[in-house]
Amino acid sequence: MSAFPESDEKKYIRMNGHERLQHHLTWTTFVLLAVTGFMVEFPESWLVFLGSYKEPVFFWRGLIHRIAAVVMIANLFYQGWYITCTRSGRSYLIAMLPRLQDLWDFLQNMRYYLRLSPEKPAFDRFNYKEKMEYWTAWIGNVIITATGFILWIEHLFPKFFFDVSILVHTMEAILASCAIMVWHFYEVHLKPGKFPMSGIFLDGLIPEHELIDEHPREYERIKKDETATHLIEA
Amino acid sequence: MNKPLLFSKGILLMFSLGMLLPNPPAEAADIENCALCHKYPGLGRIDQNQKKRIFYVNEDSYTHSVHGRLRCSDCHKEVDKFPHHDVPKVDCASQCHITEPSGDRKFSHAAIIEKFNKSVHGACDEPSHESLQGDLPTCTYCHENRILRPISVLAKESPGIAREIINRCLGCHEDEQWARTYYSHLTHRILPRRSSKTMVRLCTSCHEDQERMERHGLEATGTYRDTFHWQAIKYGNLNAPNCIDCHAPVGYFSHEIMPKDNPDSSVHENNILQTCSNQFGLQQCHPGATPAFARGPIHPSGVKARLFDARLATFDKKEQIKRGELSPFKSLIAEKAQKEMTTGEYYQYIFLLIIKYFYRILIGSLISFMIFHQFLDFLATRRELKRRKHP
Questions:
Q1: In this complex, do A112 and B348 lie within 8 Å of one another by their Cβ atoms?
Q2: Domain residue limits at A37
């Protein structure tokens, strides 16, 4: 269960090249955007503490924020293209669509957490946590892109648009950062057995025992249908 | 600010060694020989109003100040006996013995004071100003001349002119005192004398005082610090606007700041577009600004609307208000808000408020749920791992 086990265990592809590239683009731009964005929310006393060279820092802050934003938006289009125009992408999208089963999974999982039931729910390729994260990320990205553009060309709009945008942009950023820290960082970094991090985002491979443990229904499907393309034994 | 601390440090010093060591006499001629006494840092007393007064003049600071070439008696009139009793306060509008070089008149600040008195900060005919004179800034409130704070030299607070700059002047001009005076005379009018941070601090020393502002029916400007303008200033951006960059931009004069409904004001709705674009400044700020953008409230509306709101909340006391037992307005500013705020502005404010609380509730509940969920997951995962180890 360690991060990178040296074993002969069978591995399956969980993230293909496209998906890994998308994930890398997402997390690098997210970190850059969060850091350069929250810089304008720092109190003055922190800046005094952090030292001088502040004016160039402010200039680069704005530039990096915009460059990262453009990359992030390009990545959104890339993802949109991927989930609609490629075969593996379409299967990814279909597996990601919310279903009623997710609700039963959630209820069962809560019962399992609270020791009301010994049975863990049998998750499919994506569990309700992953689906929730994925779709809220889409909504958040669209909102933050729209408001970000208004802020970028603020002088063309009435001031009220600016007021709304800056409020939504900031609040959405706070929401996203908190959610990532609690939801995603726990799931792939801090969860017992995963620390310091899950290696899936680097090589895209999931060890067999993890697949059986976390996505049993997906495992069964692969065993039944050897031609499944989205998850191939490696 | 650390003034009180500075003060106590100064007092400590003047009692310990200051009494014994007068500053070395500076070069400027002190014809009236005031420094004979006033050079002693211990010189001071507590006056009839229990106010601590310091009469020490740091000669070095004085001679390097803008007034360094004036005689003491040019400003301190009617000082003719010892001890100096009943001396009138210094009037900046009085004439001094310097001749104004472009005409042959005696120099005086009277012209600028006349302009200032017509401004929003002056003793103009605004009704609230008459009864509340004490709230208005005097000359020395903003022009905090270093010679008025003689103790500050002990805290190395005087920036002065960089040595390499004054050395350029001294290449031709022998008299350093002379070079400093003329250098300062020009540069003080070309370069901003205060950093943006100091400027904001100066203006907000009154304008963030909620109580004082309410007496005048004004909103406190605490919300300036929420703007991007202030964020840029915080990082030392020289082009980011401080208070006077908008309220007295190029073409306007800081002594003639007018209320925003005066057509001579830089923030009057006819002039605001020009102010936002800052067309004649060193750097254009919002060159493509539209009127709709420029006319929006830059200090995020809030206080006014809240007070307007408070007014609406008194609906149930309508009868009392009708009978005149209760004032319909909580304060002067609420009364003004009701008059000035348009319905559109009011609903815009309500809309922003709804978004704010929507997000607050969303973030609060969603993140709490996530923490709770992941905590349960943590316990369950640990339980599971333990079970696998010792089945």
A1: no
A2: 17-96
Mark yes or no for CB contact B235/A55 under 8 Å: yes
Query: What's residue B340's pLDDT?
Result: 75
Q: What's the length of chain B? A: 391
Q: Do B359 and A193 touch (CB under 8 A)?
A: no
Q: Which of the residues B377, B383, B389 would you substitute to probe the A interface, choosing the one with the greatest number of A C-beta atoms within 10 Å?
A: B377
Domain termination residue (choose one: B191, B209, B233): B191
Q: Is residue B348 part of a domain?
A: yes
Q: How many CB atoms lie within 10 A of CB B86?
A: 6
- Positive or negative, the CA dihedral B251, B257, B260, B261 is negative
Give A183's contacts in chain B (Cβ within 8 Å): 370, 374
Residue labelled with tokens 């307007």: B308
Structural tokens at position B267: 């923030």
Please tell me which residue of chain A has the smallest CA distance to B355.
Answer: A168
Question: For residues B194 and B383, what is the distance between their CA atoms, to the nearest angstrom?
Answer: 64
Q: Across the interface, do B367 and A160 touch by the CB < 8 Å criterion?
A: no
In a domain, B305, yes or no: no
Q: Report the pLDDT value the prediction gives residue B330, as an integer from 0 to 100.
A: 63
Please report residues of B whose CB lies closer than 8 A to that of A1: 385
Average pLDDT over residues B54-67: 78
Q: How many domains does chain B have?
A: 2
Residue B15 has pLDDT above 50, yes or no: no
**pTM for the structure as a whole:** 0.79
Residue B95 inside a domain? The answer is no
Domain that holds residue B388: 342-391
**Which one of A155, A167, A191 has the shortest CB-CB distance to B293?**
A155
CA A157 to chain centre: 32
Q: Look at A171 and B377 and tell me if their CB atoms are within 8 Å.
A: no
Does ipTM exceed 0.90? yes
The last residue of a domain, from among B146, B168, B191: B191
The answer to whether A166 and A151 are in contact (CB under 8 A) is yes
pLDDT exceeds 80 at position A149: yes
In eight-state DSSP terms, residue A135 is: H
A121 lies in some domain = no
Q: Which of A7-16, A112-121, B357-366 has the highest mean pLDDT?
A: B357-366
The mean per-residue pLDDT over the stretch A107-129 comes to: 93
- Which tokens in the block code for residue B250? 């190029």
pLDDT reading at B8 higher than 60: no
